[in-house]
Amino acid sequence: MFSRDRWNEILEALTSNMFRTILTAFGVFWGIFILIVLLAAGKGLENGVKLDFSGRATNTMNMWAQTISKPYKGLPKGRRFTYKIDDVAAIKDKVPNLKIVSPRNQLGGWGGANNVVRGLKTGAYNVYGDYPEVIQQQPMDITQGRFINYNDINEKRKVAVIGLSVAKELYDNGEEILGSYVKISGVNFSVIGVYKTKQTGGDAEEGQKQIFVPFTAFSQAFNRGDRVGWMMITAEDNVPITGLKEQIFDVVRQRHTIHPDDKRAIGHWDVYEEYSKIEGLFTALRLVAYVVGILVLLSGIIGISNIMLIVVKERTKEIGIRRALGASPWSIRGQILLESIFLTILSGMVGIIFGSLTIYGLNALLDANGPVDMFANPSVDLTVILIALTILIISGLLAGFIPAQNAIRVKPVDALRTE
Amino acid sequence: MIQIKDLHKSYHMGSNSLHVLKGINFDVKEGELVSIMGSSGSGKSTLLNILGMLDEADQGQYILDNVPIKNLNEKIAAKYRNEFLGFIFQSFNLINYKSALDNVAMPLYYKGVKRKERNDTAMHYLEKVGLADWSHHLPSELSGGQKQRVAIARALASDPKVLMADEPTGALDTKTSYEVMELIQGINDEGKTILVVTHEHDIAQMTKRIVNLKDGLIIDDKKVQQVRASEYV
Lengths: 419, 233
What we know:
Number of helices of chain B: 7
Strand content of chain B: 25-35%
Largest sheet of chain A: 12 strands, mixed
CATH class of chain B: Alpha Beta
Strand order of the largest sheet of chain B: 6-7-8-3-9-10
Oligomer: heterodimer
Order of helices and strands of chain A: HHEEHEEEEHEHEHEEHEHEEHEHHHHH
Largest sheet of chain B: 6 strands, mixed
Shape of chain A: elongated
Number of strands of chain B: 10
Number of strands of chain A: 14
Helix content of chain A: 40-55%
CATH topology of chain B: Rossmann fold
């Protein structure tokens, strides 16, 4: 089947009318090129958007307290409630498959007044009271020192981990940061670490204007007692938090005497759900890329099929001669099919190569000009290439099928008579 | 070698039906050199096509080398053509983008002979027809007589039982025609069975037996005193 003679024949047949072959091949080339570039562009957009989630635990939910909207057990509506530190243990205890439940407290906030002082410098930053696990939910790179640990929690040490932007604003260049003190809302905290966020763009600047202190020290220093501002809950990797959150709410409702049907009492932000929506969006985008690419490819394939029909017509007599000499129908059919597949794959390969070069160029351009919002590292992986090749082989077969059938439909005697 | 009994063939063109062969009975023994003569429309080419398995008879019996030829599918027909038959055509029917050698080697390719052996055999037959020096030329670089000799080499390449020549000299001038006939006679002298369709009397006289066809029937079948083509050349 794949003898040298066969390949010689294919090459002879395809090179006998070079210009026509190239024009025909262009259709398939273009189809595959569009497919690759579209998929890469979709991937670039996906990468860009996912950078915003980068490193963050996506199977996570933030949960805070709101106003109770239903009277229950003789208690009126319109009450407010606050989470207690005991709630954390209760949730962990009663709801399975939770990986991390972080109670959090917060000072400051967007547009807040200056709350941090160091010497003559002041700044407005978010200050969080946190447990050590929060670094797994909201990853950051520690550039100096360390993050909060359990000794800090247990001993209620007044220590702080500050963001890179905080360090830049409160410290002079080259000044020793670790071991120095910053005054947060009038309480001195010793700086034990500096972090850098994994986010990019505008979010990064904001993400680094934060200070983390041990939860217990925060509670003590700022009179929170056993109250918890909000919680950040992450489930085990293979259990979506979206499916667990009702159980969590039930625990909270029970402990705080809230009506079981009160939907408004507990506010939450389900990162997993949002992430899934985005995932869905990109799946749809990929689908569109495939559909468009394959449709363009289809016109190319029809072109190949068309030209193979003409080739078969032109070579009717030759095919007649070959059959008179003993060529079996399958050898003729195989010849036409192979020609068609070969032409399809060859032009498809060129399309893949040009598509890859385009992506390479785009990446080089992005690298040279710095990051762009919502677009990063457009690329296609090997799977896409393999899928494209499979599509090519199948389409080559399809393109050659009708012409091959035509080639052997004519009786040898009639084929020999044609001029 | 060839036995046919009561062979019928009609062509249908729209509502018209043309009865071309109306019951042909005819035997050819091994080593014979037979010419089939007749005016155009007599059915001689149709007969040859059926004998060559390029076309199928509607009715009748055809036995080739003790193998009954009937109800062939294309695959088996192709195999038989390859093994039993060699074709020589009026218009040579060489494949014009292949060299003389490749043309001659083609039946062997379809027979499944390995490349090296194929080329050796093809070269041997090209030598036999005196064209060894032209083996790598394309058909377009050869004269008519040379093309026909390449075609004869090709017909011989797979060592078939019977050679079928359809007007082998129809496109050649007299001198070249005689050269080709001399070659065909030589091959026949070596024992090969050959059928020649022609409408030229001088060519027919160079065979050993003349079968005359008219309106789809054999009207005359006689042995003749063979005229050697070499006398003319």
